[in-house]
Amino acid sequence: MARRRRHGLGRALALTAASALVWGVAHLRTGRRLTGAALLASHTLLAGLVVSVPFGPRPELLRLAFSPGWLAFTTAAGLLLAAVWAGVVARSWFLVRPAGLHAPARAAGACAVVLLCLAVSAPFLVAAHAAFLYRGALLSIFGSADHARAEGRANPWAGLPRLNVLLLGGDAGRNRFGVRTDSITLASIDTRTGDTVLLSLPRNLERVPMPPGPALERFPDGFTGDGPMTPGMLNEVYQYAEDHPEVVPGVPPGRRGPALLRPAVEAALGQPVHYHVLVDMRGFARLIDAMGGVEVVIPEDIAYGARDEGLLPAGRHRLSGTQALWYGRSRTGSDDYTRMARQKCLMRAMARQAEPYRILPRFQQLAAAARRTVSTDIPPSLLPAFLELAEKVKSRGRITSLPFVPPLITSADPDYGLIRARADHALWGGEAKASHKAAATRKAAASAAPTASANAARPSASPDAARPVSLDETCPS
């Protein structure tokens, strides 16, 4: 008690603050050497672990960052550290607080200690909350994916010269029933160089070849929709599968659309689809807003809305989510094919502007938006490899685009033999390289052979119309 009386209020608060910075100071000062030494050693070990994390092996750090189990551990550890640190501060104050203080002084000291406890625990509570949100988003987006495909593989792209990811934009508007995939692009990435080719199919592509099985039996001459009076466009395939489970037997609801659309795109392009990503276009606006907007150059005014009530003026602008959605969707004064070109420029702008200094401060908003916006079959265990490949694409890869639009094809009467040949040439550069493609590629092309033979006699489009063009050349900047 005598030791406690010799400490004034200011000195006691200073010792408590010192204990908040370095555990054990107050314990050592009051003669509790064993406990103080243990706290000091624990604090030193903890600090060492935190400082050493950034210098750990990058592949292992990435793997942990995308591990739901590790994120759950991080959440629990953050809560535990917050409680322990606040407990150390409170106990330190109890040991050094002066005896015989008047009520106002006791209240002032208690308030100061409570604020100090909140200050030291807040970072850990924030980190735990962020890890909890991140884990929820990870499980929501990737939770249903097949983990087994990536396990035990140090380099998942070994033996895979090109990784093909189908990017789908689903438009489930208020005036629509179900989901229509109005944006269909196969991103084919060279796993060695990062060079990427975007093969875009128009939403109004008709008579898309169906994969073998019930779908091909129902539509032997290509997809025609619900009846002979409907054209049956590509953007209807997804919802048709959801509404007609018999064409994809054994597939649960929510997965029927990709189960039919993916092989249909494979058959149309003659290229395998390894994974797919579906982005809900209404949620896409929230994703852009969470990023803080996206900057694009608009070469000429773009009117939008049912009655052209909106206008995106020409010039350089940072678009909000709603504006970016209209930029990519508006067909006023243009057509589907012009819209497809703008969508590619929007993708390019987002990829370039997704810098860590933009993403990290808005992490929680992005995680919440992505959870409601994105679905995919990419397994979480592959995300580190995807991230490294994305960095390669961004840092040194060249992104080109080949949209299958007039005059290259006619959407109402497409030549799928020509589409497959042009896609093959864009990705592989001719027969010599094509001979080295994976067996899955040849299988996809073979499944669409009947349609190809029917179109074999058609004339080809000009070489320039079928040449992949760099987005740096076509997108104003």
TrEMBL record:
The chain crosses the membrane at residues 38-57, 69-95, 107-134. Coiled coil: none annotated. Keywords: Membrane, Transmembrane, Transmembrane helix. InterPro entries: LytR/CpsA/Psr_CW_biosynth (IPR050922), LytR_CpsA_psr (IPR004474). Residues 180-354 form the Cell envelope-related transcriptional attenuator domain. Residues 439-477 are annotated as: Disordered. Residues 441-467 have a biased composition (Low complexity). It holds the Pfam family LytR_cpsA_psr. The keyword Iron does not apply. Belongs to the LytR/CpsA/Psr (LCP) family. This is Cell envelope-related transcriptional attenuator domain-containing protein. The lineage of its organism: Bacteria, Bacillati, Actinomycetota, Actinomycetes, Streptosporangiales.
